[in-house]
Amino acid sequence: MAIATTSPVTGEVLRRFDELTPEELEDKLARAAAAAASYRLTSVEQRAEWLHHAADRLEKEVESVSAMITTEMGKTFRAAEEEVAKCVRGLRFYATEGPAFLRDLEGDGGGVGAKQTFVTYQPIGAVLAVMPWNLPLWQAMRFAAPALMAGNVGLLKHASNVPQCAMYLEELFRDAGFPDDVFQTLLISAGRVEQVLRDPRVAAATLTGSEPAGRSVATIAGDEIKKVVLELGGSDPFIVMPSTNLERATDVAVKARCLNNGQSCINGKRFFVHEDIGDAFIEMFVAKMGALVVGDPMDEGTDVGPLATESGRQDVESYVDDAVAKGATVLLGGERPDGPGWFYPPTVLTGITPEMRMYHEEVFGPVAQVWTVASLEEALREANGHPYGLGSNLWSEDEAERELFVRDVQSGMAFINGNTTSYPEIPFGGVKRSGYGRELSDLGMREFMNAKTVWIGQDA
To answer: Where do the Aldehyde dehydrogenase domain residues begin and end (predicted)?
Structure first.
């Protein structure tokens, strides 16, 4: 894919960017290694101050940055503003809490025959981040903020359709006061990721993206014996039981499916509704999905903008067409609108069976699959039968049902009576083919640190 800004609204190429030459890439890697050697010695107080400066600038530039996000990947301007605000929150969280996360952890020296023993957390060097386009600032920020606070150096290989967002992040951290080369954007194709990851000056990698991309990066990292964190696909279950507030549950169900134009790994995608409320849920859900306004993402009245890429819309269409051809029922949507751009309407399907591709795979667009189930146990069996295990969602006022859900759902995150989302304060990540490792919170920071054990003997 060419490195370019292409409008999802019109399909027009707005700006093209040159890929780094081999010489330019080598220069960036050399500078990253040099920066890592010195930046690791900066104080945590200084790093925190620079993170606050980055947050200050981002707050001042919220409108222009949000417009840039919307232009490049098509989410509504309102959603882009929310993404920018989340980035500010993440920067301030790590600036405020990061110093505590980096404190030495005292151990029981006497128990191991020492005067003192402790664990000290130290940066590991340059970390490669391979990031997707769907949350072009936040996905990168949830790596960058903890990594820079920890004393690591960042190398960002962003998606090829959001180059302006990628370049902005490098500029943001440099202008906030971070030393030159501590955070660099690499304008390179996906085919050159292997070269960078195999370079001995790169210590580790983190990837958010598709399962095939994660498998490739994990294979390379394993061959090089380098740490990698993977956040891959998700086809999150959204389970609704009779005890819940159906009006509230359907409101959130619509948001869960269509947030970010339906292009989020933690969108609710598979809706399992107890048969006692199945008809009522479906009626309300379809009506609310159908009321969403699809249109220009810069328009304040728009709820759902275009999909980010032409190939992305083709993928969504192929999933829906395959399901319909094999017997699924379309309750809403299911056909692309006429006109320019990569729009696709909110769509609701029932009658999904294992013969259909979407039963086993992730649909990255505003397409909901709805089942009715006889019990929570049946919902969990269906939910857990999927190869992904990122987020999950239960709507219930029954304490026993909540306990069963938390115990048995196979996911990295379990949300009850609220939309699945990410916060800098709590860990983010999945199980099974959704990847491994954690982002955010103290766990996310320590993924790319050396937990060094120190043992000091008794005085002679």
So the answer is: 3-454
pLDDT digits 0-9 by tens, 109-137: 999 999 999 999 999 999 999 999 999 99
Is 45 labeled as catalytic in the residue annotation? no
Number of alpha carbons in the 13 Å side-chain half-sphere of residue 423: 6
Cα 246 to Cα 250: distance, rounded to the nearest angstrom? 6
Q: What is the CATH number of the domain that holds 390?
A: 3.40.309.10
User: What's the length of the chain?
Assistant: 460
Query: Do β-strands 227-231 and 435-436 pair in parallel, antiparallel, or remain unpaired?
Result: antiparallel
231 a catalytic residue: yes
For the record, the structure tokens of 223 come out as: 């061959």
Is the same domain home to 328 and 384? yes
Confidence of residue 302 (pLDDT cuts 50, 70, 90): very high
Is the same domain home to 153 and 280? no
The model's pLDDT over 370-425, given as tens digits with 9 standing for 90+, comes to 999 999 999 999 999 999 999 999 999 999 999 999 999 999 999 999 999 999 99
Which residues does 369 contact at the CB level (< 8 Å), separation at least 6? 269, 270, 271, 349, 350, 352, 358, 359, 363
Q: Residue 144 belongs to what domain range?
A: 4-232+433-456
| Whether residues 171 and 274 fall in one domain | no
Percentages helix, strand, coil for the chain, rounded to the nearest 5? Answer: 45, 20, 35
First-to-final CA distance of the chain: 65
| 97, 258, 265, 362: the active-site residue | 265
Q: How many domains does the chain have?
A: 2
Residue from 231, 362, 401, 439 carrying the catalytic annotation: 231
Q: What is the DSSP letter of 86?
A: H
Tell me whether residue 428 is in a domain.
no
